[in-house]
């Protein structure tokens, strides 16, 4: 097996790729203003300023849209944790540092726009939203923690830069899918337009990280495939520690905001194809073993997807039958 590169060696080897992709991103990224996506004329004071506090009847969002909007916004709110993680793994030097700053500034717009929209339109309870934000940001987030005990076994190299770029590649794409589907679920053209704009940012961010990780595969194939496998097989969305995450996640999965099939077919598989994971011939025996483990995990995920969909369809059918029975009784 080839010698694994240290964190510093990886940063040095990948720095030209980072510089190229920072420049690419700056050419393609479109500047936008959060205030242009908020219907300010719908706003009114809350009780502290002589107005009326939030009431559930004021919201135009159904339960699915509320759960998705809150989950997506609280995910964006945890930006300080994400900034800290990529700053620690990427360094703040040269192209790496420029990307960390630019990415953080772009991501910050997402939370600003979404919160302003929800508060102005009274889409969700702003007090509960603030309480959840405090809890979630206090808990923080680390992508390495999602790998469980085996993360420690990966050592500094794979568990640092490579693991970080592998994780954010999938996470940014997953967030893009979730934002796009949440926009549709809101049944509001303003929300849909806002979340399409945010999703476009997420896609460009994904491309940056995907290209860095792809270059990592070329430079150190075994090391990088191991990091990819650990990320894919232990993947959790960054909202894991927020209040009601599992409840909201189930609701979002049941109603097509983000489910296992989307995770497999719209996130994992397209990225792996882009990296030519199953066509590459530059892995050693150790890397080949990791690739086989990855293939086995994907087979299991596909089987789990079918089981989930069968359970979901039965649950939705029961709910529909209850509603029909209630209508008939009334």
Tally of individual domains:
1
Mean pLDDT: 91
Residue runs with pLDDT of under 50 for 5 or more positions: 147-158
The number of helical elements comes to 12
What's the multimeric state? single chain
The dominant shape is globular
At the fourth CATH level, what is the homologous superfamily?
A: Ribonucleotide Reductase, subunit A
So what's the CATH class?
A: Mainly Alpha
What structural category do the secondary elements indicate?
mainly alpha
Cα-atom radius of gyration: 21 Å
How much strand content do the residues show? under 5%
Structural commentary:
This protein is mostly helical and 330 residues long. The chain has one domain (26-327): Ribonucleotide Reductase, subunit A (Orthogonal Bundle), CATH 1.10.620.20. The protein has twelve helices and no strands. It has helices at 7-28, 63-77, 79-90, 94-121, 126-139, 150-153, 155-185, 189-219, 221-233, 245-254, 260-274, 285-329. Helix 2 (63-77) packs antiparallel against helix 4, helix 3 (79-90) runs antiparallel to helix 7 and helix 4 (94-121) runs antiparallel to helix 8 (189-219). The longest helix has 45 residues, at 285-329. It is globular and about 70 Å long.
Task: Write a compact overview of the structure shown.
With 330 residues, the protein is mainly alpha-helical.
């Amino acid at each position: 097996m080839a010698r694994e590169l240290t964190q510093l060696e990886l940063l040095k080897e990948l720095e030209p790729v980072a510089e190229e992709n920072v420049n690419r991103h700056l050419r393609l990224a479109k500047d936008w203003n959060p205030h242009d996506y908020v219907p300010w004329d719908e706003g009114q004071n809350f009780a502290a300023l002589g107005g009326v506090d939030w009431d559930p009847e004021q919201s135009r969002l159904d339960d699915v849209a509320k759960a998705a909007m809150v989950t997506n916004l609280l995910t964006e709110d945890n930006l300080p944790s994400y900034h800290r993680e990529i700053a620690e793994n990427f360094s703040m030097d040269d192209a790496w540092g420029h990307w960390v700053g630019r990415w953080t500034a772009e991501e910050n717009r997402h939370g600003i726009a979404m919160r302003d929209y929800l508060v102005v339109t009274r889409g969700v309870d702003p007090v509960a939203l603030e309480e959840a934000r405090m809890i979630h940001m206090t808990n923080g987030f680390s992508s390495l923690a999602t790998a469980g005990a085996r993360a420690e076994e990966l050592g500094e190299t794979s568990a640092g830069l490579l693991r970080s770029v592998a994780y954010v590649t999938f996470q940014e794409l997953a967030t893009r899918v979730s934002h796009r589907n949440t926009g549709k679920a809101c049944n509001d053209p303003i929300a849909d337009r806002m979340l399409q704009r945010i999703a476009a940012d997420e896609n460009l961010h994904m491309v940056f990280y995907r290209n860095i990780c792809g270059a990592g595969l070329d430079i150190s194939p075994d090391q990088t495939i191991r990091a990819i496998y650990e990320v894919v097989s232990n993947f959790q969305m960054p909202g894991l520690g927020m209040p009601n995450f599992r409840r909201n996640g189930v609701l979002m999965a049941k109603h097509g905001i983000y489910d296992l099939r989307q995770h497999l077919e719209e996130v994992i598989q397209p990225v792996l194809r882009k990296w030519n994971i199953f066509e590459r011939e530059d892995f050693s025996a150790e890397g080949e073993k990791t690739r086989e483990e990855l293939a086995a995990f994907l087979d299991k995920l596909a089987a789990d997807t079918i089981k989930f969909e069968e359970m979901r369809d039965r649950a939705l059918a029961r709910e529909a039958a209850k509603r029909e029975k209630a209508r008939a009784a009334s």
